[in-house]
Design goal:
The structure is a homodimer of 317-residue chains. With 317 residues, chain A is of the alpha/beta class. Chain A has helices at 13-17, 27-40, 69-76, 120-133, 149-160, 178-191, 210-219, 241-247, 255-271, 280-287, 293-300, 306-315, and strands at 8-11, 44-49, 84-90, 110-115, 136-141, 166-170, 198-202, 224-227. Helix content of chain A is 40%, strand content 14%. The first copy, chain A, starts with 7 loop residues before the first strand and ends with a helix. The A-B interface holds A 177-179, 207-209, 211-213, 215-216, 219, 240, 242-243, 246-247, 255-256, 259-260, 262-263, 267, 280, 283, 287, 304-307, 310-311 and B 177-179, 207-209, 211-213, 215-216, 219, 240, 242-243, 246-247, 255-256, 259-260, 262-263, 267, 280, 283, 287, 304-307, 310-311.
Chain lengths: 317, 317
């Protein structure tokens, strides 16, 4: 029944959910979600990616793939709330030296640097850059279920020497079981012992374990918890905010406001045909520890031949 | 990666799933499921309830509420497979002295006695009756999340002295988190230490934790695991068989055959309007540790006013 004051809940609906609808949320949706998150006690709200405009055409995506300063401000003004604002910067897909203002001129509080294991040196350069601009930073090492243990240890040791505030354990393929997630959690936590750095967890729901893995890793001491409303996120989606808020006993988090938002804004989104959430095809890629791209194609094609699809995945191992 | 040879998987699709469609499965469905379970290595298949025909009119339900010997035999013949056949006997809703043949004359292998905590003395009488007829027996103590610890301890001590083969931990309201489920698991396991009795787990998916709780309790030594195809069961449903079989590394369990069955028989069932599975209304009753009946009514009425429903639940605490 005790409350953990170190817990920080981050809403990643616009960022990970944006991968389901090409980031084409209406301003009303984003504004209502912002107000809801503030009311519900969410600690951070991630608005999207800061993607390179030299690599991606702005007209091909909704605005939250780019998170222009003025677009965020159109929603939050100067963000008079206690909730902090985060954006994601993908290593190799972000013009980080030109696209970020100094923190003193920006409404953004935190930059989350997402990378694969081989990009750690670049990630560190970016982290130091953002830190020098005055931002809080995280490093989200993706797809770790395909990385060998020695490489993870080395990456963690390198990151422990940097200015990064939070290192995220990311189960990109939803392939971790609670016993695996907790073993990783302990590894990450011990790597940052006595550094003041925190560990976060970002789950995917391929095997319907996103919420379970989130509270499991939390029980070992992970304190930054990613969630999205109704689990909205790429493929099988993420840890559902409503389940997480229901679980946390801290009175600062408020479930009721979130339910209003779901009713008015999430259900219509599903009715419009935006697709995410657990289904067999995602279970297969989670089970096989693979990128969900083929499962997303299967979903988009509205296929129902699960056994044939599973066979194809096995054939292409 | 090690295989646990003590694990027994029980398919409860017809029994718990029957609560979603009034037990009105076609013979073809039940036959195909039987063949699928045999092929997939499932250890037990539960065919339904042995409900009292003096309390319930046979014409009001599908046949699997009553599990007449001839109806089971019409599906399985003499059951030449290695898979065992189970039925459920509800304390207070079963004419157990008249409705069971001696095991030597029946194709049924196991009788699962389901009871609430105050019915333990009757459950024990029934267990001894079924044992004397030659059946394997289980005792499934329901709704334990609403029972105080001393009563559970007393019930377990009483059952440890009986002929029962397996005692089931049953999370009827889907209100347990993995940390609670594992604490109960350890309590149940220690109560039967050195008796040769086994412990089972039956999950409900109200907080999307049915699978997670099942593998969590298994990791503590629980060995009888209930699952249903696609989690079909009352309200939010149960632990999904496909997730469980995917997780178990024992080569005797075969996922592929199950996928064929899902494609051909489960998807059509959903398309016909049979409803089950995780949704917000079930999360609420799980969170509040309540019977799902109001959430089932909300579902059947196709309501979408989640926040209003949640408020009503809080008002009626």
């Amino acid at each position: 029944m005790a409350v953990r004051d170190d817990i920080k809940v981050l809403d990643a609906t616009i960022r990970d959910g944006g991968l389901c609808n090409n980031f084409e949320f209406t301003d009303e949706f984003v504004y209502e979600l912002y107000k809801t998150n503030v009311k519900c006690g969410v600690d951070y709200m991630e608005f999207g990616y800061k993607a390179s405009k030299t690599m991606f055409k702005e007209s091909d995506y909704g605005k939250w793939k780019f998170c222009n300063e003025e677009d965020i401000r159109a929603i939050v003004g100067d963000n008079p709330s206690d909730m902090k604002i985060a954006v994601m910067a993908d290593v190799g897909r972000c013009d980080y030296k030109t696209d970020f203002l100094p923190k003193s001129e920006s409404v953004i509080d935190m930059v989350r640097v997402a990378c694969y294991i081989h990009q750690i040196p670049t990630a560190i350069e970016m982290i130091e850059w953002f830190h020098s601009l005055g931002y809080e930073t995280t490093c989200n090492i993706m797809a770790i279920s395909q990385v060998n243990t020695e490489q993870i240890d080395q990456a963690l040791a390198m990151l422990a020497e940097t200015s990064v505030d939070v290192i995220y354990l990311v189960d990109s393929y939803g392939s971790l079981y609670p016993e695996n997630a907790s073993a990783y959690a302990q590894k990450y936590l011990s790597a940052v012992e006595n550094t003041g750095k925190k560990i976060g967890f970002h789950a995917h729901n391929n095997q319907n374990l996103a919420f379970a893995n989130t509270i499991e890793t939390m029980s070992y001491g992970i304190s930054y918890l990613d969630a999205t409303v109704q689990g909205m996120g790429r493929g099988a989606g993420n840890c559902a905010m409503e389940l997480l808020i229901g679980f946390l006993k801290n009175p600062k988090y408020n479930l009721f406001g979130l339910l209003n938002f779901i009713e008015k804004h999430m259900i219509p989104l599903k009715e419009q045909g935006v697709m995410w959430g657990y289904d067999l095809q995602y279970m297969f890629t989670g089970l096989l520890n693979r990128h969900p791209r083929e499962a997303i194609e299967f979903t988009n094609a509205k296929r129902g031949d699960y056994s044939e699809f599973y066979k194809t995945l096995l054939d292409n191992f």
